[in-house]
Amino acid sequence: MKLIYGVLCVLGLVIPMWQFIPWFMEHGFDLVQFLNDASATRLATFAWADVLLTSVALLVFIVVEGGGRLRMSCILPGVIATFLVGPSLGLPLFLYLREVELNRKTA
Q1: Which residues 6+ apart lie within 8 Å of 84 measured at CB?
Q2: Of 83, 68, 76, residue with least CA distance to 97
Q3: Residue 77: half-sphere exposure toward Cβ, Cα within 13 Å
Q4: Is the separation of the CB atoms in 70 and 102 below 8 Å?
Q5: Of the candidates 20, 100, 31, 18, which has an alpha carbon nearest to the alpha carbon of residue 66?
Q6: Could you count the other beta carbons within 10 Å of the beta carbon of residue 54?
Q7: Rounded CA gap, 88 and 79, in Å?
Q8: Which of 1, 28, 98, 99 lies in the 20 to 30 Å Cα band around 10?
Q9: 3-state secondary structure string, the chain?
Q10: 28 — phi, psi (to 5°)?
């Protein structure tokens, strides 16, 4: 499973950045333009609402599962990845670290 989660981490970073980096190169840190583009159509607004709600659910899962139930020593990378890239990286990274922790505890 670690290999699958690792591949999903790479894809979860590369695919979103493939779209974001060209936009950022053109617009820089223009938050107003970012918000305008992110809400330009109903479909874009739907996609962003979905990503934001998924991110909140993922952060709750990371804190409850990793920080609470499993008492993992490193939940911060999944949280940071979710904030910096999104759940496309945050979830597989957390699952990878969770798998490592579970393997360590059962070994």
Answers
A1: none
A2: 76
A3: 12
A4: yes
A5: 100
A6: 16
A7: 12
A8: 28
A9: CHHHHHHHHHHHHHHHHHHHHHHHHHHCCCHHHHHHHHCCCHHHHHHHHHHHHHHHHHHHHHHHHHHHHCCCCCCHHHHHHHHHCCHHHHHHHHHHHHHHHHHHHHC
A10: 65, -145
Specify burial of residue 27 (Cβ count, 10 A radius: 0-12, 13-18, 19+).
middle
Report the distance separating Cα 82 and Cα 94, nearest Å. Answer: 10
User: Encoding tokens for residue 20?
Assistant: 């974001």
Residue that the structure tokens 């670290």 belong to: 97
Write down how long the chain is.
107
Which pair of structure tokens corresponds to residue 65? 């599962």
Q: Please write the tens of the pLDDT for every residue from 39-93.
A: 999 999 999 999 999 999 999 999 999 988 889 888 999 999 999 999 999 999 9
Q: How far apart are CA 89 and CA 101, in angstroms?
A: 18
